[in-house]
Every structure is written in structure tokens, then in C-alpha cells.
Specification:
Shape: globular
Structural class: alpha+beta
Number of helices: 6
Strand order of the largest sheet: 3-4-10-5-6
Length: about 300
């Protein structure tokens, strides 16, 4: 689920201080092209990712429209994170942005090609197997390089450090962040109506690339079997299947095992959270705040 309210709260200028972290801004060393079915529209789209100059940041290019991967362009939408500018929308960006943020791709141009788009105003990022693993694998294949600006100079990378605690709450769901010299995440989910999922917590003291690649990127999105028809009646998950999501029944448990981790649903929520918080990024700097971030439901 999108967390724009939480990201907006954290972005408040009095809460964040941008500081150097001893790294240079990076981009991909070569272009990437991947095609696949999309989760909600069920179409086939192609994503091309190109190297970009330092300080340009991450941005999408669709139908001659540039849409920065920034909180300013988040649009409310069910069951995915959506970016919008000039009536052009790109849905389900969170897995791709999570992979880019975690692997250190600070600057890149992301072109979306959707030949089947009828209105040329809305498109979607492919879902692949429901995780971020295919994005991470593609990034690792081409590798990274130091990004240079138009003058050929490299740029020091900054990260947002939290100055004071902040939280956002809705009913019994919340997200909070606390100042800490090193970033870490704690996430909890609770599905009492689905015993096979139940209550799960996942916590990490490290947010570096090897940890993400090994422990988070392979975790897949999941759904409750009894809710599938309702979502389809609402025009969602047209491309959803047992090939790109874990499906769990309240009565029968997991319908397409095995899981990659015993707590894979909770790990996937961490994956989504990193993608949403990456929207804090600006000018090729880090998006994920240096803080202890705690989220529940």
C-alpha cells in the first residue's frame, strides 16, 4: 500500500538534515530492457532503464512526459503506488524503485513502452514474479558506475538524517521513525483471519545492498484467496496469477507453496516500504531516511 502520508510527514524540512555519507552518486553502467505482464491492467509493457547524469535523479518517461520518482507526484490508488503528472499515470512503481534505491542506482531514466495503451495516458510497470528479484538481477548484470554531471564532475551523495521522531497513524495501523546514526527497519503485519499468515514481524540492523539482494528482493507479493474476486470485480489484478503472487486461503492455507522465507509476506512489505520511502530522493541523493523506521499493518 502507498505510504504518501508518512513520506510527506518525514519530508518536512525541520525533520530532515541532508548530510554526506562518503559515497559518490551512481548510475547504471549500461542500459536495461525488460518486458512482462502488469498486475492490475494485465497488459504487456516494456521498461527501458538508461544511465543518467549526476543530480538528475530517477525519473520515468512515458508518452513524451517526464514524471520524477518523487513524493510530489504520488497519486492515490488502491493496491499499488502510482505516480502522476500532466494526467499521465504510471502504476505499480514500488518494486522497481525499491530495487533501484537499495542497489544504489541514484540517477536513471526509466522509459515505459506500452503499445496496447488505448488512451496513452496510463501505464504500469511489469510485476514479473511479484518480487524485486528480476530488477536486482538486471542491475547486477550491467553493473554500476560513478555518475558525472554535464561538466564531467562526480557528485557527493547525500542522505536524509532524521532530526526528531515522527509518526503517522490510521486506526491501528502506523508508521514511525526515530533518529539513529544508521538506518534500520522493523515491520509488523497481522492477518488474524488467515492463520497461515497471522502476525509476523521482521527487523534488520542493516540496509546495505548484499542484505537487500539476499533477504528482501526475492520476497513476493501476496493476496488472500477469498478477496480475489472482489478485487477483480473492482477492475484490479487482471494480470494476477499464482505465477506472480503468493495466494493464501483463510481455510486451506497457502495454495501455491513453497514460500521462499517463512515470513515472506512481512519481508515483502519491507520491500514495498523501501520503494515508497525512495520517493524522498531528490537530485540523485539517497531517498531512504537514516533512521529506525517502524511500521505496522
Amino acid at each position: 500500500m502507498p505510504l504518501s502520508g508518512a513520506v510527506n510527514a518525514i519530508k518536512s524540512s525541520r525533520l530532515l538534515s541532508w548530510k554526506p555519507i562518503g559515497k559518490l552518486q551512481q548510475t547504471i553502467a549500461n542500459s536495461i530492457q525488460l518486458s512482462g505482464i502488469t498486475l492490475h491492467s494485465g497488459k504487456i509493457t516494456t521498461v527501458k532503464i538508461y544511465p543518467e547524469l549526476a543530480q538528475k535523479g530517477r525519473y520515468f518517461y512515458f508518452n513524451s512526459t517526464i514524471i520524477p520518482a518523487s513524493i510530489q507526484h504520488v497519486n492515490s490508488s488502491p493496491l499499488c503506488t502510482t505516480l502522476c503528472k500532466s494526467n499521465h499515470t504510471i502504476r505499480t512503481v514500488e518494486h522497481l524503485l525499491s530495487a533501484l534505491e537499495a542497489t544504489g542506482v541514484d540517477n536513471c531514466r526509466i522509459e515505459i513502452i506500452d503499445p496496447s495503451s488505448q488512451d496513452n495516458l496510463s501505464t504500469e510497470v511489469p510485476i514479473f514474479d511479484g518480487s524485486a528479484r528480476e530488477w536486482v538481477d538486471a542491475i547486477e548484470r550491467v553493473g554500476l558506475k560513478v555518475a558525472e554531471d554535464s561538466s564531467g564532475s562526480s557528485c557527493e551523495k547525500l542522505a536524509p538524517f532524521l532530526n526528531e521522531p515522527v509518526h503517522v497513524r490510521k486506526n491501528d495501523s502506523f508508521i514511525a521513525a526515530f533518529p539513529l546514526p544508521k538506518g534500520c527497519l522493523t515491520y509488523g503485519i497481522n492477518f488474524p483471519q488467515v492463520p497461515a499468515i497471522g502476525c509476523q514481524w521482521f527487523s534488520t540492523a542493516s540496509l546495505d545492498d548484499p542484505w537487500y539482494t539476499r533477504e528482501i528482493a526475492p520476497s513476493r507479493t501476496f493476496c488472500i484467496f477469498e478477496e480475489v474476486q472482489t478485487m477483480r470485480n473492482a477492475g484490479l489484478i487482471k494480470g494476477g496469477s499464482a505465477e506472480n503472487a503468493l495466494v493464501c486461503s483463510a481455510d486451506k492455507g497457502w495454495l501455491n507453496p513453497p514460500l521462499r522465507f517463512h515470513d515472506e509476506p512481512c519481508r515483502h512489505k519491507v520491500l514495498d516500504l523501501i520503494g515508497d520511502l525512495s520517493l524522498l530522493a531528490q537530485n540523485g541523493n539517497q531517498g531512504l531516511p537514516v533512521a529506525h523506521i517502524v511500521a505496522y499493518k
